[in-house]
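Appendix C. Worked example: Histone H2A
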Amino acid sequence: MAAGAGRGKAAGKKATSRSSKAGLQFPVGRIARFLKSGKYAERVGAGAPVYLAAVLEYLAAEVLELAGNAARDNKKNRIVPRHIQLAVRNDEELSKLLGHVTIANGGVLPNIHSVLLPTKKTTGCNVPFYVFAQDNYVVKP
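Step 2, the predicted output written as structure tokens:
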């Protein structure tokens, strides 16, 4: 009998994790343990932790891809919470999913209300005038 092989096990057979069987990076065994110890239900099926691990891995990959794009747009090599915030809030579905979530050190989306922006007007002599929408104050350039 080979070392490491117990009763009923074939000699020399290496153990494979459920994560590798499912082709996932997230730990299926750990998620199964959390589901069982968390008392979410009396019993947990065999496929439930695999499915949950796949969903969590997909969401993490989606957020990381968008955050990486946001970091590259800002000419940075490292993803910081600001990039995660920009990625989540600019994506419609992720923003809806994480609508009530606060990301620490994330900041806010850059947004200037259209009323506060100067409106450009042209006169008959093709000289641009800038009229501010609130109090009609005219400034010549």
